[in-house]
Amino acid sequence: QVQLEESGGGLVQPGGSLKLSCTWSGLILDYYAVGWFRQAPGKEREPVSCISSTLGRYYADSVKGRFTISRDNAKSTVYLQMNNLKPEDTAVYYCATGLYAIATTTECREYNYWGQGTQVTVSL
Q1: Dihedral (C-alpha) 95, 24, 13, 67: value to the nearest 10 degrees?
Q2: Percent of the chain predicted with pLDDT > 90
């Protein structure tokens, strides 16, 4: 059973930066896609960024140019560097994967293993 754990969330002012980390255990995820999703209050969960085993990357239009996803399989970790944060980035951020998870420049789907989430709040 795969386990995912997020860290790095917190409170930051608009224009600031945060780096989220997702570590996994229970399964060798080197060959699987891993993604970041977020859910704001009153909204549905949405994909933010996903990365495949061959380093294909997906970014939501709202974060392109501001967020960068990367992975270090040796550390069993995927990162999400978030720069120039905006109040609308406020949400709970979840790390996810799946045996059939897809991450391409245009698609991020089929994720069914989830972490517990980490809160990101962008506010003055």
Answers
A1: -60
A2: 92
